[in-house]
Amino acid sequence: MLMATQWIVLGAGSVVAVLIGIHRHRPARKAPWLLLAGAIAALAAGDVFYGLRRMDLADACYLLMFGLVALSLLQFTRGGALLVDRARLIDLLAFACSTLLVVWVFVIGSGGQFGAVNAADVIGSLLLIAVASRLVAADRRNISAILLLTGAVGLLVGDIAYPLAPSRLTESAYVVLYLAWGLSALHPSMVRLTEPRAPEPTPWRFRWSVLLAASAATPPLVLLIEALSGTIRDGVVIAVTTAVTLLLTITRLADSIHQHSQALTREYGLRTANTALVAAADPPAVDAAVRAAVNRLLPPNTVRRVVLATDDGQLAREHLPPAPAGSESRSWWAPADEADERMLICPLRLEPLAVARPSGGALILTGRLDALIAGRDALEVLAGEAALALDRITLVEAMGRRDSDIYLRTVIPNTAESMAVIDSDQRIRYASPALRRLLGGGELPPLIALDDLVHPDDRDRVRRALSAEGDGSMFCALRRLDHTQVLVEMTYRDLRADRLVQGLVVTMSDITDRHDPSERRPFREDDSGQPAQINRRSAQHKFRY
């Protein structure tokens, strides 16, 4: 038989391997691996006490080991980890635990013993195998999950074979347990066991609730039957099974309460955000409402940076990767500076139309991966509501500008002032009748730019002046429809920041009559080839005003 020092070496080596794996691979959650290390240490202590014939201390350590490894596996199966939904697993584990208790007490043996095999150890090992098998089923290529299952199988074999036939061969099953659980933490796939994933809410089913209730009621019923029969022979097994079933039931209820609480929080946050976005009158108000909603939807201090890019131009300045090819998801991930952080990109899509905004844009959040995954659905909905608010504001402003243009056309049809409203791209949005008469009459072509009206020799100067910020005035020549020229004094006001105008208001005064007849056509179209004529034209252009 293995000596106490050998069990100490095996246990210490396995615990050190788990700690090295945690330090090297840095999983998203360290708690389940630390609990597993504690379970290995408790098992090693139990084996040492067993080798020293201190059975009372050995049983206490074994019981502690089962408790720690059960908590560890529950952490592995926590919502948002490898198993996105563990409700059905918990229900089945509770039912299996109660069923094994009934089979052991009423079918297999008396007093919870089959020869020297302990019923509580076998039931606990079977439950560990069930959870580890579920982990393997969720990720069949995960070596760490396979090693955890191998260690659980080794524990079951040792709990059955060693009491029936003590030998080095049957004792080696426990050695397999130590080696497998230690190696499971050293393999890089251990990170995937706690990697955050999007939870999937489980719909309520009455039959599952009945199954869980029956599982929780079975151990007290078995105890009642033995008490009525006159002798309680399986008190320890019943107590352990009751504790495990109660732990599973409480875990199941806690998960349900947590999911319900998260749903209420998301509902309240989105409802409040929707109210604020409906009341928002400009993009800064939309940005403030989105930031407030993010703070309500996600836990505090989990999001480091929030950017609401209202168009594709601002999105390009963020240097973000494009959406994955062929992906129909309403959001995608990008790497962040910190190892435990990610960047979530939610394009501004018009819900419920599920189409992108004409100007594009996205909601960009940088923060902890687990928090962003948990709130991803709510953040996608928030981005859709922000898109609707931004487009509503754009449409309201466009309607305001249209009404303003209609008002101008109605109020000043006979004014002698030549006036135009120029967009930021220098296209003419509105031209007064006086300006049209100045240019020779007739309607201006749609989407015509001011550059098309200014003489080519003056275009660069006019373009630079109107592209700069602020008000000003200048002199230039306009080309009429009959190819004649008219000299004007152009005065412009920069109202691009005004919510109702969003452009430049340009007024033009005809100053052609103030010049000599020879100066009323400053640019000659037929003398462009001779150097002397070019110099004379340049001097006339310089001093004509």
UniProtKB/TrEMBL annotation:
TM region(s), chain numbering: 6-22, 34-51, 57-77, 89-108, 114-136, 143-162, 174-194, 206-229, 235-254
CDD domains in the cross-refs: PAS
Domain PAS: 404-473
Annotated InterPro entries: PAS (IPR000014), PAS-like_dom_sf (IPR035965), PAS_fold (IPR013767)
Tagged with keyword Membrane: yes
Species: Actinoplanes aureus
Keyword Transmembrane: yes
GO biological process, one term: regulation of DNA-templated transcription
Identification of the protein by name: PAS domain S-box protein
Region (Disordered): 511-545
Keyword terms, alphabetized: Membrane, Transmembrane, Transmembrane helix
SMART domains in the cross-refs: PAS (SM00091)
Ranges of Basic and acidic residues composition bias in the record: 511-527
NCBIfam families on file: sensory_box (TIGR00229)
